[in-house]
Amino acid sequence: MTEEARKPLAAVALALAVLSYYFIAAGRLEPEFVLAPAWTANLDRAGSADAFATPATGAAASEAVALGFELGRFHGQVGPDGRILHVGLRDFRSAVSDGYVIPYDFDSDGLTVLDSVGAPSYEIKAPGAPWFSSGRLFLAGPEMGSVSEYSGSGELLWSLDFGAPISAFAADEGLAVAGLVDGTIVAIERDGSVALRTAPGGSRIEIILGLAVDSERGRIAAICGIDRQRFVLLTRTGGAYRVASHSYLSTDFRRPVSIRLSADGRHAWYEGATGIVVRQLEDGSESTLDLPSRDFTISEDPSRGLTYLLSRDAASATLVVVSPPDRVLGRYALPGADAFARAYGDLVFTGSSERLAAFAAGED
């Protein structure tokens, strides 16, 4: 190959390297673990949704795997290979899952659910705020005192009025759990029946600030109360939920609190006074990761036994690769407070500062 022929290839390689460094500034990783850039996609190259091309169309697009994203002013779907299936501009807010997007505002009388290529799929003729959790579609009533669940075709499955505003909510494939401002926890089965209604108590001001659920193991974790605040773990034994453990916390949050349960049932992650607390559920021991903790998410790679933890502050985010409970393998700085990250197979799918990217997890 001549020197002149090599120049364009060198320029492309340099551009990809610069883009990868700009998108994610890598911290030091242990030698056996690497995240290698797989692809990137820019979302800020046009000011209107009409300017975005849709590489996949028709039946092929409908059958393609779609990863939903919500990033800054954009929402949409992208394939694991980086093909953008749909990109839209948000007027107000949107609910996003893999395969569906619901743009909405608080004064709308109904909702239109868009499929993976942005085409109308079905409608929900009810007001409220929608969200997806574990592939399930929920709708909170306008006064935030009720929740409904809808099927994948827009059919109402159940609706429940709680009698008090909702302050926290969590759901997995088997159970939905609502926390109320009066300190009550209500767990709802898939058929809409109430499996649990309890008030943990123990604080001067009763309110549920954060919830996580693991229906497979019959567990509900909560951050509750003000003056004093508590971590409470409920477990299902003999068909009923009981308090399995609890501890008073040094925090005094008066707002929603992030809390998660690990997929393997071993750990709870929640917001602490000085970072993200990792609590081992077997013996109650705790450790703290020195990271911004107000708004964090976790995504797990069970094949490697890793947790991808995304921690945000007011202006940026940090992606941390953790070998649970608290062994940090690497840190990545992400520009923009609206960043997200999740595991998908061997990929870590991320979005930051109006850019999408995927990194392949592997061993060096």
Give structural notes.
The protein is mainly β and 364 residues long. The protein has a single domain (37-363), classed as Methylamine Dehydrogenase, Chain H. Helix content is 7%, strand content 52%. The strands form nine sheets. Strands 1-29-28-27-26 form a five-stranded antiparallel beta sheet. A four-stranded antiparallel beta sheet has the order 2-32-31-30, covered by helices on one side. A hairpin with a 4-residue loop joins strand 16 and strand 17. The model is unreliable at 5-22, 25-30 and 46-62 (pLDDT under 50).
Summarize this structure as a short list of keywords or feature phrases:
364 residues, mainly beta, Methylamine Dehydrogenase, Chain H, 5-stranded antiparallel beta sheet, 4-stranded antiparallel beta sheet, 2 helices
Number of strands: 32
Query: Over the alpha carbons, how many angstroms does the gyration radius reach?
Result: 22 Å
User: What is the approximate shape?
Assistant: globular
CATH topology: Methylamine Dehydrogenase, Chain H
Query: Can you identify the CATH class?
Result: Mainly Beta
**Distance, first to last CA:** 30 Å
Number of individual domains: 1
Largest sheet: 5 strands, antiparallel
Overall CATH architecture = 7 Propeller
Q: Approximately how much helix is present in the residues? A: under 10%
CATH homologous superfamily grouping: YVTN repeat-like/Quinoprotein amine dehydrogenase
Q: Could you tell me the strand content as a percent range?
A: over 45%
For the largest sheet, list the strands in their spatial order.
1-29-28-27-26
* Arithmetic mean of pLDDT: 86
The number of helices is: 2
Pick out the low-confidence regions: 5-22, 25-30, 46-62
| Protein structure class | mainly beta
